[in-house]
Amino acid sequence: MERLSIQDIISKINSEETFHAVAENYSFTLKIESYVPYACAAVHDGHQFRKDLWDNCLHSEYDRWYEEDPETKNMVISHPILIAGCDSRFEYDLNRTPEEAVFETAWGKQLWKKPLPKSEKEKSLEKHTNFYKIVHALISKLEDKFGTCIVYDMHSYNWQRWDREVPTWNLGTSNIDSNRFGNQVEAWRQTLANIELPHGIKQTAKVNDTFQGVGYFLKYITNNFKNTLVLATEIAKVYCDEYHQIIYPEVVSAVEQQLKIELPKHAQSFYNTFKK
User: Fold this and answer.
1) d(Cα 273, Cα 276) in Å, to the nearest integer?
2) Closest among 144, 162, 150 to 264, alpha carbons compared
3) pLDDT per residue over 60-96, tens digit each?
4) Are strands 28-32 and 38-42 parallel, antiparallel or unpaired?
5) Its domain of life (predicted)?
6) From start to end of the chain, where are the E strands?
7) Which residues contact 193 (CB under 8 A, 6 or more apart)?
């Protein structure tokens, strides 16, 4: 893995180089092993939290972990194109607009002892801006090369806070064209419903049951690229003990091993349908 500037990463994408890089400021990673018409993303995988912010933060390290999406990068680690956040969404949230990306309150609780100085906000927002420069360059290249592209936008959610039965997998589709892409959404839902997990974990997958797919990452790509489908894919945190901060690696591995096989099949089917 190389440590690269934003401009160097964009230059490598534009010249179709393969590489594995971390951003110069360690805010995200991007791996391109080969240029294929699909990409994976884990924007909330990050847990880093800038030391300048520690003393001013009212949330504990556990509070932050609880609302992040740990292990979502590892679930799609084997795929040829993968972009993932390294920083906690509590510094800036890559799945929110620039105006909303730096929280003042988070999940009903004040985040900062004192309001963040403008200079600190700007440091965080610059990372947000740079991430989207890379996303733009990447999807531009894939659409130019293949005519169409599909992005698997991986997230997780805390299922135990719900007071009803919720699915193991949820697809958020309210911001995608269901007339055009409905068959691909249903095929992906069926794929997820067939993923077998250890310990008798239920195999259920629903559309717009717990989340509707209103994140900025999906909206940004959908609004800027006419031939790219983003599938906001949420797994319930059945792969960890969300109250005691324990990861179950055998569950993460089961997801990864099955997505290694099934995700490229789905991506190929999408490409065969929509290539020009």
Assistant:
1) 9
2) 150
3) 999 999 999 999 999 999 999 999 999 999 999 999 9
4) unpaired
5) Bacteria
6) 2-4, 19-23, 28-32, 38-42, 81-85, 105-106, 109-110, 149-157, 169-172, 205-207, 228-236, 240-241, 246-247
7) 169, 203, 204, 205
CATH at 192 = 3.40.630.40
Pick the closest to residue 52 from 119, 135, 3, 102 (CA basis). Answer: 119
The Cα 137–Cα 15 span in angstroms is 11
Cα 263 versus chain centre, distance: 15
User: What are the structure tokens assigned to 120, written together?
Assistant: 């600190």
Number of separate domains in the chain: 1
pLDDT, tens digit, 9 for 90 and up, residues 159-207: 989 999 999 999 999 999 999 999 999 999 999 999 999 999 999 999 9
Domain residues for the domain of 158 are: 2-274
Residue 67 φ/ψ region, left for φ over 0, alpha for ψ in the -120 to 50 degree band, beta for the rest? alpha
Rounded to 5°, the CA angle 237-33-196 comes to 30
